[in-house]
Amino acid sequence: MTEYTPLMSTPPDEYEVESKNPNTEHPPRYSLLFSLLIALVAVAAAAAFHLSVLSETHQAEPLLRTTDIESSLRVATPSPNLDKGHAIMRDKKFKFPRMVFPASMVRANAAEPDMVYESGSSVVLSPTDSMIYHWRTNSSWPKCYLTGWVSPAADLTGRKSYTWDGDVTAIQIWNLSAPADRNALKTLSWNTRPSRLSLLGTVNFTDRAVQNGLGHLDGQEIKAPTPRFDCLGDTEITVELTCTACRLEFQQVFSMPPLGFELMQLA
Ligand SMILES: *[C@@H]1O[C@H](CO)[C@@H](O)[C@H](O)[C@H]1NC(C)=O
Ligand SMILES: *[C@@H]1O[C@H](CO)[C@@H](O)[C@H](O)[C@H]1NC(C)=O
Ligand SMILES: *[C@@H]1O[C@H](CO)[C@@H](O)[C@H](O)[C@H]1NC(C)=O
């Protein structure tokens, strides 16, 4: 038990500080909680000690202090099994979602409602500009959803970029009525665009790596930005992207690293 001595040296100091304050009366409930806490710290410390014994470099490393354990707990990844899960998926050759590039992307400008735009890679969103996206897929994978995909800044460096202003964390995706002739989706104006049917969801057009590291967004991908819809076999979907308080501009081109609005298809 002598190994644990350094760990025991911290709590008594805390007791001293507490007992110097004459106004502090600990009801039995609190002292019970406190001893429980101490017991938990001791268990954690014992576990940490065993871990350090198991690690190769244990001789060089000093025994962990309670504060070290606390800080390592606080930075612990919220989804510790995610990497493990991905590794298993790779091992077993499970299929990752497939990203389907849009068949057309056309700007619609409310400020010039008769101005006709052609499908192209330029994406412009503003309080008066929306984008009409159209996807087609024909595959045996049954489910799809739509999302915004912003590769980490380190991957984009020098290859792709986007400019934005205002709030790009809730870009709306509206399902549109299907036009009789899909070629009509290649050339559109604000006045000739298909009508909105329903709001499918909103996407957060910010760095994916940053989003993945934020505790308060943990689990957001469990619920896809838009509901999953059936897309087995020949499927088409037309949506309008809008934002009421943002300005976003970039080129969506078919190359790595991904940057843009994408259809994700699940096996
Ligand atoms: C979709 O794929 C199936 C199987 O590959 C094929 O038979 C069918 O003709 C395709 N449909 C269209 C509209 O391309
Ligand atoms: C979008 O609207 C079309 C009708 O144009 C409908 O068939 C389809 O199910 C809707 N999609 C979603 C995901 O709600
Ligand atoms: C969007 O993602 C950013 C990180 O890139 C995060 O700070 C923010 O809270 C997210 N917003 C929403 C509404 O999810």
UniProtKB/TrEMBL annotation:
It comes from the Eukaryota. Keywords: Membrane, Transmembrane, Transmembrane helix. The chain crosses the membrane at residues 30-54. Residues 1-24 are annotated as: Disordered. This is Ubiquitin 3 binding protein But2 C-terminal domain-containing protein. It comes from Mycena maculata.
